């Protein structure tokens, strides 16, 4: 049995100040940080103990996790567990990545986002160079805002081709065909992000082979459907796993629609679903061996 687990604890603070983010420069009080740490340690204990499942874990904190030692420690310890196939985290890469030298590079991976205006391109690229030297799997992406286009192009040009650069459509923004073409030139899979996917009543792996977990162990099928289907720590999650159809009208976030069965994105991103690296990147994607239409 295989299960992808998206974990999000109480942490909701960030060292960056992105104008498009509600967590910009938010500070968590010490009590909440203690709570977040305890919740993460409980979760890593559950992962370590659940040896009968092939687990993949993606940490999706509201804010930035890697500036906190407990997320770095969790990444390292989980990467060495034989039943953990992947442990990944969404990060702004502000923290130096040297700690990853202690992780198993076959298992640990990063989903890194470049936020122009918050960090210089040179500094961000230096972080990427360190990851490349350590052999750590990672994808890099940007939010597709017009003011980011030049920086996104420069980033793509500066990174080796084997690093996948993704582009997320900015929330609520409509793209003209010309704009879409400009961003697609950087990320051939941008078409999946640019329009929300109609998902109501469509079959989705979420709730069957992927779950969302809160700090208190509450299990939902995904981050976007509020209905609770069990709890990690009382074992009720096991009986909850079954084929399901989506109850939401649309799904417009990669960490959700990558599991929407009709899209077939589990195959497009095979081996890199959680850290967002397409299978066979770059050759298979650029040569058209995977479908690029949303
Ligand atoms: S780095 Fe991420 S979490 Fe932090 S302010 Fe920017 S978008 Fe928000
Ligand atoms: S389609 Fe999206 S919103 Fe619906 S169940 Fe799947 S991941 Fe959740």
TrEMBL record:
- Signal sequence span is none
Per its UniProt record, what InterPro entries does this chain match? Answer: Aldolase_TIM, Radical_SAM_STM4011-like, rSAM_sf
Q: Which domain of life is it from?
A: Bacteria
Family annotation (Gene3D superfamilies)? Aldolase class I (3.20.20.70)
NCBIfam families, alphabetized: rSAM_STM4011
The protein's name is MoaA/NifB/PqqE/SkfB family radical SAM enzyme
Organism encoding this protein: Actinoplanes teichomyceticus
Q: What is the lineage of its organism?
A: Bacteria, Bacillati, Actinomycetota, Actinomycetes, Micromonosporales
């Amino acid at each position: 049995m295989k299960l992808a687990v998206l974990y999000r604890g109480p942490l909701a603070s960030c060292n960056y100040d992105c104008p498009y983010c509600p967590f910009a420069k938010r500070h968590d009080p010490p009590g909440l940080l203690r709570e977040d740490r305890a919740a993460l340690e409980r979760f890593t204990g559950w992962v370590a103990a659940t040896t009968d499942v092939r687990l993949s874990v993606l940490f999706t904190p509201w804010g930035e996790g890697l500036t906190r030692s407990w997320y770095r420690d969790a990444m390292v310890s989980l990467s060495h567990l034989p039943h953990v196939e992947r442990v990944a985290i969404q990060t702004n890469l502000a923290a130096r990545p040297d700690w990853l030298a202690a992780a198993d590079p076959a298992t640990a991976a990063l989903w890194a986002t470049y936020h122009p205006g918050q960090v210089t391109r040179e500094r961000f690229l230096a972080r990427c160079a360190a990851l490349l030297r350590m052999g750590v799997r990672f994808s890099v992406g940007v939010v597709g805002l017009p003011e980011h286009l030049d920086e996104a192009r420069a980033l793509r040009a500066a990174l080796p081709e084997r690093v996948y650069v993704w582009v997320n459509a900015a929330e609520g923004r409509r793209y003209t065909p010309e704009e879409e073409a400009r961003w697609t030139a950087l990320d051939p899979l941008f078409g999946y992000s640019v329009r929300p996917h109609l998902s109501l009543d469509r079959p989705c792996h979420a709730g069957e082979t992927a779950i969302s977990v809160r700090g208190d162990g509450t299990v939902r099928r995904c981050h976007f459907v509020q209905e609770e289907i069990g709890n990690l720590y009382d074992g009720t999650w096991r009986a909850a796993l079954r084929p399901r159809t989506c109850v939401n009208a649309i799904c417009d976030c990669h960490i959700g629609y990558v599991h929407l069965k009709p899209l077939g994105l589990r195959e497009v991103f095979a081996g890199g679903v959680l850290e967002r690296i397409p299978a066979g990147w770059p050759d298979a994607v650029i040569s058209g061996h995977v479908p690029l239409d949303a």
